[in-house]
Amino acid sequence: MQITALDAQTMNPGDLSWAPLEKLGSLTVYPYSPADKVAERAKDADILLVNKVVLSTQVLQQLPQLQCICVTATGYNNIDLQAASERGIPVCNAVGYSTDSVAQHVFALLLGLTNRVHAHHTSVQAGEWQRSPDFSYTLSSIPELAGLTMGIYGFGRIGQRVAEIAQAFGMKILATHKHPKRDARPGVQFVELPELFSNSDVVSLHAPLSPDNREIVNEELLQRMKPTAYLINTGRGGLIDEAALKRALQQGHLAGAGLDVLSTEPPKQGNILTTAPNCLISPHMAWATKASRQRLLNITVENVRGYLMYELQNQVNP
User: CA torsion, points 75, 78, 82, 87, in degrees to nearest 10?
Assistant: First the structure.
């Protein structure tokens, strides 16, 4: 079997081993594949590994040898599922590998906004502690998380893990969810979205993006937030009306925002939020701890093995 990975750099930039996949077939790895190289590089593949590479109907028509597609991610909107199904090609994804990693990054962003450790470090390097008349100082008032309310939009695996960590900090939990009875948790109160934004000191976004919730965090919801509240987004950039968020930050309608995702990634033409006040932005890295990427690679290996053993796992198309 020829196994070809078309954009492997994000999953394995060199610190993980390809050996488990190499045992299952002849492995060819490309760090990145531009659109005009995809068909050429994939033409001899029996099994394709892709992350963000687009496999459209037109591309799939040029791959007569292809038997299976393994997506090295949870999302698979870059694959034409109908075309794959019509060709009898199973598409398998990876689920649950990044839960702890993303939840960890939520609090990295939140603590970056509240405790401002790097800003204080820079202040010390600039000699401000040496010149201080007292043994201690802060650059601004620091809120304590204990007793504050964390609002979670999207209460799936990651949202639930964020709730557990927030509770360990002593925070109260509000959440919105399609299945509140099924996923009830001690100390978690389910509310409607307007109430979540009005009553939370921190709002963290974890719902998948769909046509129904694109830019759901709009002017109206942002105006409901407390001026001392923070917005965290490690979900999808499209959940936020970015122009409305910048205005809210400029006008002091909320204390800050921590974003790991933007509406367009990478933001080759720039993004209006990079110049917004009190806005921390990281480059869609919440999922990418080494442990998380190792779990992703492990799931991918098992998806390939499952196909070879006629025991498909994590198949997303009929």
Answer: -110
